């Protein structure tokens, strides 16, 4: 580590921690308390849990006393090695500590973290760096969850609360929609496949589920030039896609019938026009805007309707590894997806940002994967069952958080995440 490394790490730490508070700032204490379903968590719990992570895994081993020893049982998410976590579905019942007290908790831990980092020698700092990076990446995950969770909560309110109003742009209609430019045709880029390498390269931070790097054989395939849009979703709905069992996986058809689905989450057709509830309030999406809040089942059915399929995660990564990690992320401030660029060039557009892209791959360990020892070994590995992999990030994802090898995962019926679809096809000679 060079001189100034500790200062740079502290600046990075402060930047990530401050962004969480900025995301929570538009919310009242009552907003921060609400838990709209078991899969979501209150905003103040996200703020506290990410603080507990640093306190537990970085400060406690150095002998720093806990801010409040009682917090360990209520802000532990799923680390059973550290004790029995408070029931996830009951987090909304934790009216105490208050949002203001959690603010004090965050400030206290931040002060101790900064003091600890600045006191480390270069060798000590090098040793602790991977754990700090994990904590920051973990907090960035919860920043996205904070937004998806409060969106779900606000969507239950008949008053349709607005999380954050943005100044109208010159190209924005009064209802919040962005007029469509020339529609970008859906095209497919062909790839020869063959024996390819996938997984984290070890050049920068990566989660353990991205390791180890390994080889995968791919048949020739083609990947769509852009994401599936509302125009294509409209065709699916008009042609009774939600009522056509041949388009659906068996579990998906059961899901559609049991939930009575007829549109993506937060959306409805009104007078032939789509209306979507978002963090900016209710709006009309452009026909060229990527459709969001699809479950894996819906993404798979739409792909089949369009004469295609979802890509495997290896196919997606093989293409994305050749592209720059650039796209429409959280920092853009739009808080909803945007249409693809007018010209995507030789590579597919929107590989990163806008919406997470469901893949056809089940979330499983890579060959040779071994979870870490101790409590942090519970971070990813124990969830490798009953989940599907998503790739690419979304407009709720902090820039710099994702990479070509990053693996997100959710259960196939998940709809409240900012997830959409990209098409793929076989391309055998």
Written account of the structure:
This protein starts with a helix and ends with a strand. The strands form five sheets. It has a four-stranded mixed beta sheet with strand order 12-11-10-13. A three-stranded antiparallel beta sheet has the order 1-4-14, with helices on one face. Strands 5-6-7 form a three-stranded antiparallel beta sheet, with no helix packed on it. The protein has 429 residues and is α+β, with helices and mostly antiparallel strands. The chain has helices at 5-24, 29-33, 43-59, 71-74, 99-119, 122-155, 230-238, 250-259, 296-305, 313-320; strands at residues 188-191, 194-198, 214-218, 221-227, 267-270, 273-278, 281-283, 327-328, 352-353, 356-362, 388-391, 408-410, 419-420, 422-426. Residues 168-177 have low confidence and may be disordered.
SSE layout and pairings?
Elements (H helix, E strand, L loop, with lengths): L4 H20 L4 H5 L9 H17 L11 H4 L24 H21 L2 H34 L32 E4 L2 E5 L15 E5 L2 E7 L2 H9 L11 H10 L7 E4 L2 E6 L2 E3 L12 H10 L7 H8 L6 E2 L23 E2 L2 E7 L25 E4 L16 E3 L8 E2 L1 E5 L3
Parallel strand pairs: 8-9, 10-13
Antiparallel strand pairs: 1-4, 2-3, 4-14, 5-6, 6-7, 10-11, 11-12
Helix pairs in contact: 1-5, 1-6, 3-5, 3-6, 8-9
Key features?
alpha+beta; 429 residues; globular
